Every structure is written in C-alpha cells, then in structure tokens.
Amino acid sequence: MTLTTRERxxxxxxxxxxxxxxxxRAGRGRIAGKTxxxxxxxxxxxxxAAGYQPGTLERGLLEQFAAATLPPVPGSSMPRQxxxxxxxxxxxxxxxx
Length: 97
Description:
The protein is α+β, with helices and mostly antiparallel strands. The protein is built from two helices and four strands, in the order E-E-E-H-H-E. It has a four-stranded antiparallel β-sheet, with helices on one face.
C-alpha cells in the first residue's frame, strides 16, 4: 500500500493517490490549505481510510498514519514544488497482503 502526494497543478494545491497493490487508484483527490507534505499525507490517509471496512488491516494502517504525530526531522526542509513525496504503509512480515 502506497500513498503519494504531489504539489501541483499550482502551489498550495496537492494531489494524492493511494495504491493498495491491486488498484493503482484506490483513492485519489486534491487537497488545498495544507502547507506540509506530512500534513497532506495524514489528511489524505484519513480520507482514504473511510474507503475500507472497519477492522481491516488497510483501514487500521491508514487510521494509524492519519493520527500519527511525528516530531520534525532536524535538518529537513520543505519539499520543492512538484517533488513527489511517498509514504509506504506495509503489512507486518507474515501478514497476507
């Protein structure tokens, strides 16, 4: 399962896409009003989680990612416009995908 975001077609407008392994566009859309790629990824994860049944691994992973509060990484900077940021949500080893 991979959730990607890109800042385009204009600054401040983000596109997100969820690939769940069987469907390249399991979730997609646009978000405005967010400035950080991590904020956009968390927001998109919350939106995409609603597309899965409660209690499923996919929904649980997306909900956990949406609720995560990660401290900033020292020395990191904001991504440049049109860079693709990817966060991969992987199942634990031995769990069927």
